[in-house]
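3.2 Worked example (two chains)
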Amino acid sequence: MPGAFSSFVAKLAPTMTNSSPICFERAKLVLFSRKTRLPVRARGPYKNLLTLFFSLGLIARFKDVRSDSSYGYRIEWPTPSKILVPADTMLKRVYKNWWAKQMIKSLSAEEQAIMRVQLLAHRFTAGKKAGFVITRDSYSRHHIPERDGLAALESSYSASQFDCPAVKLSRRGKPMPRHVILTKEQLIRTDPSFRVKEKNVMSLHSVSAVHVSPHDDNVAVVKSKEPGFDVVMSLGGDTNNYAIEFVSRLYLACRDAGNKIEVVVHEGSLAYNNSLKEGSSHALEFKKNPAGEPGTRLGKTTVLF
């Protein structure tokens, strides 16, 4: 190692034994100030020192992370030098995955299930769909108050993984009030009295994708692998909005059933075909409600939000 560089490292040695993040940053500043004086042969050790100081800085800042109630979420990361930006990006990705697992492990079984759905919702719609928000009580699974009618339906099929009131678009484009019930095997639409026809029971293996708009509406188009059997629904009807929770829970239920589907936030109009035959399609256009009324109004070709 060149003499000048050896001397430089010797001056930094006392700093390297101190665990204070401030000392790490001071040493790093000194290192940057000396960069232009280093011989070419010293650049390799110089990069090694940058890596060392960055690593020691992380260790000092995150040493008590397991006893932190937020598992280090509020800790400020040291600023990486240019050559360490890829490593910094990779480490932050690893940390986020670890943080999510720790947060989930600290919750009850029911809270864990809800958080998994919330994380999926964030992945699919955060920054993509207007109105996205998650609160502690978000995504509580059951939104139909008539539990007796739902229990009778569950006795014929299986337990509801998600349920909510909805408005379904008929083949002729007529909005019709419905209940939507998602089980481990089917997507079921019933009338308000929980009467169900077999044609309104969709196997999760038949689902290919679910499309939503980027707007603050509650409409979802469930795409079928069989042409003509798409399902268009307003999740929550005119007033409530359960679309993002529905999309996340549908994805999870399909995945658990062995059918991985696409979740698409689609710009522009949403195409669908619920005519029960191939080659006949319509498109939904999304517009701001001119009356300024809150909620979603679903029609054959137009969605007001």
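3.2.1 Second chain
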Amino acid sequence: MKSLALDFGRQYSSALADQLAILKAKGVVLQELSFVLTSSRETVRVLNALLAWLVQGVRRLELDTSTQIDENFTLSTKLLLDTLRIGSLVPELPSFLLPFSSAAPRLTCLELQPWGGGLTPTLKASLCELAPQITDLTIGLPPFFEGRDPTVSSLESLLRACTSVTVLRIVNPRPSDLKQILSFLPNCVALVAIFRFEMVIFYDLTPTHLAEVLDLPCMAQLRRWRMPQMARWWGAMSGGGGRGVASSLSSERDRASRRRTLLH
């Protein structure tokens, strides 16, 4: 088994605990783990004995809800985690991820979905500590009809701390969002990918917008610029498509590594 999604909206019951215990007894090692909450905004609690097994071999962790961990919980080994996805309902990170430099030294890919007004102060502080080790950053903005100015502005301190990012993906930005996000980055990026819905026709990049973006300091060493269509992912972004946009972006990332042209 490579991946497991725990839906706490269906209640973290003894039956679920028993099922996880069976997987543990069988020696199953997970590579991808998702904590999902579909029916409420409550904090979920994971038993220490199961948590250590759940995260021991995980390379990709997706957090869509607040997760409560016992204060005395510790991991005996460093995490193999390289990718972290954070949904809009996460107010803070679980303690086993902190400090990143010692708990998750391989973590270099961050996927954010800061809907609903942006990041909480606690979450932002933690991510600013992580930021220098991130090389691959994805930002999923809310649909244009939900409003976005506070969301983008709330990312400024985080983006300015991202001193190692070379790959940037932005989901559904307006030209103003794109320019603002790129202006916050302190160093040059090699790949920028813009994912859009076909329905967002009012915010297309004009030649003027594109010229302004390409003139930004962080774009001086740009090697690839990608704008694939994204209409087929609408269901995933709106909460009705399983694992969401992160898995789709991961597959796009794999394809991007095989592309050699800047514009196509």
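3.3 Remarks
Confidence is low (pLDDT under 50) at residues 231-264.
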